[in-house]
TrEMBL record, chain B:
GO terms for molecular function: DNA binding; DNA-binding transcription factor activity; protein dimerization activity; transition metal ion binding. Keywords: DNA-binding, Transcription, Transcription regulation. The lineage of its organism: Archaea, Methanobacteriati, Methanobacteriota, Stenosarchaea group, Halobacteria. Gene3D superfamilies: Winged helix-like DNA-binding domain superfamily/Winged helix DNA-binding domain (1.10.10.10). This is Metal-dependent transcriptional regulator. Residues 1-62 form the HTH dtxR-type domain. Belongs to the DtxR/MntR family.
Length: 164, 143
């Protein structure tokens, strides 16, 4: 157990980015599942605003995942097959009971992703290590993704507030 | 998980290994730091009301310290299980130790939705093996 470790190697960085990919998979998979999992009458009752939110969230997560994967590729690290992770995420999916549940779940997903990128950025900034990818490119990508997650949190919160 | 939480987790495990207060030597071994560093941190944790320290006996967690150690160990357990069972990492213990300072409990909880942590966690953690007892690691790590 070594203490106070920061991101100190390409391998560790790749692993953390891989965890980011998995978190994005969770958002993507759950956002896509939410609509499909509701009974037809409830699905029809979900208004356009929530439908759009979920579709956007799924698209955005797919984009984030691809950007993270591009960074991982340049680190030349071993990665696991994402189809396997997707199957696991799908297997553990418990559908929310109603629209509020859908929104809360979406909010929790976006908040978690935001927190993860924020911690990762801090850990990278606290480290003097050099990586196989340019630090500037790495941090810029992560700043952008973190900002989009923040926007996502605000968007869900707004919808929840004016529905209340 | 910050350094203080990593210490609390180590004290929790050392108390289980020694079936009593955690000695400085055991903590120094577990944390791979010097006994002097352990003593310094124990003093800080004692000031914050998280640890009771008795000379020649060792450190014991207060109720508040115990709660935080419990959470820290759960987070570590989730990271270990996630690495071993989802990402199929062979050196999952080394990597979990390296990652625990960067993965916070909110993120660990979301990873937990994939690995399905057992209800008895972290009591099912084996301090001698430094791994969850429920974690079956063989060829390719199965759950």
């Amino acid at each position: 157990m070594s203490l106070g470790q920061r991101v100190s190697s390409d391998h560790q960085l790749a692993r953390l980015l891989q965890i980011g990919v998995v978190l994005e998979e969770v958002v993507e998979s759950r956002a896509a599942h939410h609509l499909d999992s509701l009974p037809p009458e409830e699905r029809a009752a979900i208004d356009e605003e929530v439908r759009e939110l979920l579709e956007e969230a799924a698209d955005e997560s797919a984009d984030h995942r691809e950007r993270l994967e591009a960074l991982i590729d340049d680190l030349e690290a071993d990665t696991v097959a994402y189809e396997e992770i997707n199957a696991l995420v799908d297997a553990q999916y418990g559908p929310p009971e109603d629209t509020d549940g859908v929104l809360y779940d979406q909010l929790a997903n976006e908040e978690t992703a935001y927190k993860f990128y924020d911690d990762l950025i801090n850990a990278i900034e606290a480290s003097d290590s050099e990586f196989a990818i340019e630090r500037e490119r790495l941090l810029e990508t992560l700043y952008e993704i973190r900002e989009e997650e923040k926007d996502g949190v605000e968007e869900v919160t707004e919808i929840m507030e004016h529905r209340a | 998980m910050n350094t203080a939480d990593q210490y609390l987790k180590a004290i929790y495990l050392a108390q289980r290994i020694e079936d009593g207060p955690a000695s400085t030597g055991t903590l120094a071994d577990l944390l791979e730091v010097s006994p002097a560093s352990v003593n310094e941190m124990i003093g800080k944790l004692e000031d914050r009301g998280l640890v009771d320290h008795e000379k020649y006996k060792g450190a014991s967690l207060t109720d508040e310290g115990l709660g935080r150690a419990h959470d820290a160990l759960q987070t570590y357990c989730i990271i270990e299980r996630f690495l071993a069972n989802v990402l199929e990492v062979e050196e999952y213990q080394d990597e979990a130790r390296a990652l625990e300072s960067v993965i916070d409990d909110t993120v660990a909880e979301r990873l937990d939705t994939i690995i399905d942590r057992p209800g008895e966690c972290p009591d099912c953690f084996d301090p001698e093996r430094d791994a969850c007892e429920r974690l079956e690691v063989g060829d390719g790590c199965a759950d």
